[in-house]
């Protein structure tokens, strides 16, 4: 049996892949209460019992110590009157917002320092192998006057170089960081994640997983969620029979304590956002694969017919001095200025209608950025979870979504999904470590 720890575990995407690869997770932790509810509910589904064969602890990693973790593991019922094994692998994905290339990147973001705490726990526990997961921006973030866990000062150094030197100081070798695309490992989503693997001196050097999918056999969005189309007539046209990926999602990939995957008897997390007719009409303007800026460009070049968009016409008329006929005529010719375009589409350029014949873009924490290619609506939590490669039996709990400043402190279902490591990507990495163990 191979034993693992999952820190910064979130709702459990990494844990799902670890379990699918055949590891037993003895200890896991995250700071947020909302993800704890989801994570521990999954424990219950899998037949795992707190204090018996696993231990979850909600905490800031700064408050976690190796001694505390070892104590909780040693007191598990499964090790009663038995020798407690050495931890084979620690998996962890320190929060990535400070390293992300999306939006402002702040080298002084306090979240950037959490990987140092991760290193501290690694030094204290001395596992055989270490996996660190983060965003691509992790590779080229430069830190100034950074003090390592052994007291080394790095005046100006990129994070991977700091990590490599810090690992060496605590007797670990480190593979060169590698950017892995989840779509290359059977995930129906193009999502790049930086993976770093380290190994204790004397242990066999591991490798990164080789891609299992390419441009010819990647799982498309239709392959993944075609059976979740709400309109039966559309579903029968696009998805008359279940695909292999859909069947796997329904039957389950993650084994319970008896080694049997949990199948889903009913779809969970399938609530649809209640869009106003105006919003549905706005969504209908997007062709498959188009972003907001591309829709604007198409309208200006070719014009657009709005005769079947009464709510949008009414909205523009109320906000301008134009009659409904003038609005239809102007848009049909593409003779519109930026103000009229904005009234039609809003300022939001990030919104995109997904393409059905290719993997999804990166699943986000905000549900209104993506439009279904099949219907004029955003994706459900379940559809987003499918695109991340979660089993259908995996239920996300808590608020479905939230907005405004509450996003800074709340982690609703959409955020739990969007923040997760895709289970099949995690599985691919974990399997490589299983080989060298």
Automatic annotation (TrEMBL):
Keyword Transferase: yes
InterPro entries (alphabetical): C5-Methyltransferase, C5_DNA_meth_AS, C5_MeTfrase, SAM-dependent_MTases_sf
Keyword annotations from UniProtKB, A to Z: Methyltransferase, S-adenosyl-L-methionine, Transferase
Enzyme class: transferase
Active-site residues per Swiss-Prot or TrEMBL entry: 96
Any one GO MF annotation of this record: DNA binding
Gene3D superfamilies: DNA Methylase, subunit A, domain 2 (3.90.120.10), Vaccinia Virus protein VP39 (3.40.50.150)
Single GO biological process annotation from the record: methylation
Pfam families per UniProt: DNA_methylase
EC number: 2.1.1.37
Assigned protein family: Belongs to the class I-like SAM-binding methyltransferase superfamily. C5-methyltransferase family.
Protein name: DNA (cytosine-5-)-methyltransferase
């Amino acid at each position: 049996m191979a034993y693992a720890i999952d820190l910064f575990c979130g709702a459990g995407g990494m844990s799902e892949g670890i379990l699918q690869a055949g590891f037993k997770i003895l200890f896991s932790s995250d700071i947020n209460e909302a993800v704890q509810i989801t994570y521990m509910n999954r424990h219950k589904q899998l037949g795992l019992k707190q204090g018996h064969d696993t231990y979850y602890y909600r905490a800031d990693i700064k408050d976690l110590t190796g001694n505390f973790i070892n104590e909780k593991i040693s007191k598990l019922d499964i090790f009663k009157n038995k020798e407690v094994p050495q931890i084979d692998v620690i998996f962890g994905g320190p929060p990535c917002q400070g390293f992300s290339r999306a939006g402002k990147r702040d080298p002084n973001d306090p979240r950037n320092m959490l990987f140092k705490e991760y290193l501290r726990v690694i030094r204290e526990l001395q596992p055989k192998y270490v996996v660190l997961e983060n965003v691509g921006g992790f590779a080229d973030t430069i830190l100034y006057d950074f003090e390592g866990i052994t007291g080394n000062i790095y005046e100006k150094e990129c994070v991977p170089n700091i990590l490599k030197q810090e690992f060496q100081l605590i007797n670990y070798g480190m593979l060169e960081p590698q950017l892995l695309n989840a779509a290359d490992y059977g995930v129906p989503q193009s999502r790049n994640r930086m993976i770093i693997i380290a190994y204790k001196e004397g242990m066999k050097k591991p490798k990164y997983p080789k891609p299992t999918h390419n441009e010819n056999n990647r799982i498309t969005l239709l392959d993944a969620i075609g059976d979740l189309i709400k309109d039966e007539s559309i579903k029968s046209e696009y998805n008359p029979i279940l695909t292999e990926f859909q069947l796997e999602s329904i039957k389950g990939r993650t084994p319970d304590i008896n080694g049997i995957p949990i199948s889903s008897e009913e779809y969970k997390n399938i609530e649809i956002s209640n869009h106003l007719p105006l919003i549905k009409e706005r969504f209908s303007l997007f062709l498959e694969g188009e972003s907001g800026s591309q829709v604007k460009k198409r309208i200006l070049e070719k014009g657009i017919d709005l005769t079947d968009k009464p709510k949008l016409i009414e909205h523009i008329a109320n906000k301008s001095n134009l009659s409904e006929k003038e609005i239809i005529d102007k848009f049909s010719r593409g003779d519109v200025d930026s103000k009229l375009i904005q009234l039609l589409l809003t300022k939001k350029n990030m919104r995109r209608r997904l393409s059905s014949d290719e993997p999804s873009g990166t699943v986000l924490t905000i549900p209104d950025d993506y439009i279904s290619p099949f219907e004029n609506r955003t994706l459900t939590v379940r559809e987003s979870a499918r695109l991340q490669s979660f089993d259908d039996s995996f239920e996300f709990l808590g608020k479905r979504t939230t907005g405004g400043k509450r996003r800074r402190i709340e982690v609703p279902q959409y955020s739990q999904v969007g923040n997760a490591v895709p289970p099949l990507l995690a599985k691919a990495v974990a399997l490589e470590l299983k080989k060298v163990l």
